[in-house]
Amino acid sequence: MRKPILNYIFIVILTLATVAAQGQGRKPSKPGKGGGSKTTKQQKKTIIDRVFGDAGKRAKRAEMKAKNKQITQFTVKTDFSKSRRYVMFGGAVGAANYFGDLAPRFRRGSSDLDLTRSSFSGFVTYRVHPYITLSGSLGWYRIRGDDGSADPAESADAWGRYTRGLSFRNDIKEFALTGIFDLFPTDKGYLRRNFLNPYAFIGIAAFHHNPKARKPVVEPGKQEAFVDLQPLGTEGQFSGIPGSPRAYSRIQLAVPFGIGVRYRIHDKLDVGLNIGYRFLFTDYIDDVSSQYPRNEAYDAMYAKNPLSVLMSNRSGEEFAAATGERRRLRTLDGRQSLEKEVFYSNEADAFTATRIVGNEFGGAPRGNKRRDYVINTCATLTYMYDIKQKPPRFR
Fold this sequence. Notes:
Elements: H1 2-25, H2 41-52, H3 54-83, E1 87-99, E2 117-129, E3 132-146, H4 156-164, E4 167-182, E5 196-208, E6 212-214, E7 226-228, E8 251-266, E9 269-280, H5 298-304, H6 306-312, E10 340-346, E11 351-356, E12 373-385
Antiparallel strand pairs: 1-2, 1-12, 2-3, 3-4, 4-5, 5-8, 6-7, 8-9, 9-12, 10-11
């Protein structure tokens, strides 16, 4: 043990002597340059190398290796994080179905293929996680409902719907923000995504709607023009009579949610299919919700617009406004014709409005409080777009 220690002491003494001899042979440095008595960095380096030898070199190499490892880990982690983030553009074409007060039957899921209408949308999505993408979309779809689609011979409820005689059409413009949750992860970039990936989605949407209906038929077999229903206040919204419902807004909120599946057909193209349910925060998507106007409300409605009286209670119309065809206004057993009565008239204008006797009365239910909803079934086409990334800078 003593021999190695003596060797190190000898090396230190020899090194110090060499440095002192070099210092004597040099010219003194000028003032302000740090002085000649100071040991330079090169001299310190020489001392360390001589004193510690291979041990010092190994320590330096270990330090540099640790720094390189940190830089490598940082670079790999950053590239992996950004490689899975990409943008997708796409469009959807499909079918929209309405379920509510004017559906063929009084139950959820009741619809008629004849009432199915088109839907179109465009969307942009951004992948923020291997399982999650965020999407923004703009869409347009049309829905339709008609009491004439009910079969009066099927049941008492269907007979009541048929004799009510209401119909509507509504063009809806929607902006939605949704989160899409994939079943399989996409954690290595879109080029290595799964060929088939089911998903679920949920979000929030704001939409503008404007229910319309055709005016009463004047000439048999000929349909009349559409008229906006919300400004008419067909349930007495603008009459000012206590107990009448408030006017509804044509801008509403909805919660879209559903399921779908995407299939990869190209490195940058996917096709898909999804079905989405839209829970609406309104029951007036069809302009039908609560009750017929009270009898005393019709004077105010007539003063505002005589058409609002005719469009509020259409049970007495001989022809279906939606089709122009003659209606089968008979009793439930089909044996007798239904009697009509005048529920409002204005002699000065020779105006009369009729309804079925014993079926609807002022203040009686016109609809139900169950909120309407819409189902969209769409085929999609999606394009993957690269996000240009700048390489990291090192100082």
